[in-house]
Write a structure and sequence with these properties.
This protein is α+β, with helices and mostly antiparallel strands. It contains 6 helices and 21 strands.
Length: 378
């Protein structure tokens, strides 16, 4: 009997050591080796509310702030992490010592080796303090652009873009229809009575706001609306019309989105990493619908999810030939190895986001153009 009890004690001790080795909480660090530089990477894993794990990732040589990592899972010795806001994933093997993970980081077609070691107080790399957030513009401000230039875009240039860098607003290769849809959050099919040049003539815009502080999304759009009225002499009235639309709803098993920890008054991050790869950070469902209708789909997109707040996620799909007309580009043919390709857009909505994208008809607001002119001199 004594020998049996001793064996039980020994097994209990071994079990305790194994559980300790499987504990992922703590600070992990390693170096991503790219062709032209090395990037030190730190991942801080902690317990999540309600169980499970969560983490924050830091690319300290890029000076980036904390990147949310959720979910973090450990099954057997397999570690998986997702960074929905940057379209990144990590998968590795937790070694027997419990202090090292051998694996790969992926943020595109090719994985990059990233081997992590558990850091101690003595070995942990210092994480630079992020720069202080810019002072916001007063919430009740009704701003306008102090300086704005509008010039014809470079002929035959492909694609288009809207950019905000600190207090600088710019567009590249945008038609007046593009500017209106961005400023008012509508689809081009909601504009009626427009002369043909509004869809064909393209412009580059560069502007800076008057006053102080960093404008929010609503204030940037207010300034652009004023610019359109001033420089394009735009005047219109609103009407209602039943249109073919796409509706975004919540799928049967609920959404698969990560609540954003970003500034609730900050700008959303919705920037394509190639056609069919859309990481989103700090984005509302209205922001998401706006990007889908403005860049990807051929009709208005209506948010019917009822989801409030801001979200981080990544949507990856294989585009068809009818998508991305809003960016002025044509997707390449689907890869011949269809099994390895991402799903189509409708399947990706359900599988990756827990949402549905459905074609339907619905009453929609339309903008009837009353007056417009080509832009005045700068």
């Amino acid at each position: 009997m004594k020998k049996f009890v001793l064996w039980m004690v020994a097994l209990a001790a071994l079990s305790g050591d194994a559980l300790l080795a499987q504990d992922l909480t703590g600070t992990w660090q390693g170096t991503l080796v790219l062709p032209n530089r090395e990037l030190r990477t730190v991942i801080k894993v902690s317990k999540a509310d309600g169980g499970g794990l969560r983490a924050l990732m830091y690319s300290i040589d890029q000076g980036a702030g904390a990147i949310p990592v959720n979910p973090v899972t450990l099954q057997g010795s397999t570690v998986k992490m997702s960074m929905p806001g940057i379209g990144g994933t990590y998968e590795g093997k937790l070694e027997a010592d419990g202090d090292s993970i051998t694996g790969n980081f992926k943020q595109g077609p090719e994985p990059i080796a990233l081997n992590l070691k558990r850091a101690t107080t003595q070995t942990a790399w210092a994480i630079p303090e992020p720069p202080p957030p810019p002072k916001p513009m007063a919430a009740d401000a009704n701003p306008e652009f102090e300086v704005a230039t509008i010039k014809p875009a470079t002929p035959d240039r492909q694609g288009k873009g809207f950019m905000v860098r600190q207090r600088q607003f710019s567009t590249i290769n945008t038609t007046l229809n593009d500017l209106i849809t961005f400023a008012y959050g509508i689809h081009v099919k909601q504009i009626t009575g427009a002369p043909a040049w509004m869809e064909t003539e393209k412009f580059d815009v560069a502007a800076q706001p008057a006053g102080e502080g960093q404008p929010n999304d609503r204030q940037w759009k207010t300034m652009l609306q004023k610019l359109l009225a001033d420089r394009f002499k735009l005047a219109f009235h609103r009407d209602k019309k039943e249109l073919s639309v796409y509706a975004i709803t919540v799928a049967k098993n609920g959404p698969k989105l990560t609540k954003s920890e970003g500034n609730p008054s900050g700008l959303p991050g919705l920037f394509f990493r190639g056609l069919g790869n859309l990481p989103a950070t700090n984005a509302t469902m209205a922001d998401f619908a706006g990007v889908m209708q403005g860049a990807v789909l051929d009709r208005p997109v209506v948010d019917q999810t009822g989801l409030t707040g801001r979200w981080d996620f990544t949507l990856t799909w294989t585009p068809d030939e009818f998508q991305f007309a809003g960016l002025g580009v044509r997707p390449p043919p689907p890869p011949s190895n269809g099994a390895a390709a991402p799903p189509d857009l409708f399947a990706a909505f359900q599988e990756q986001l827990g949402l549905k994208l459905e074609s339907t008809k619905a009453p929609a607001e339309v903008f009837v153009i009353d007056k417009v002119a080509k832009p005045t001199e700068n």
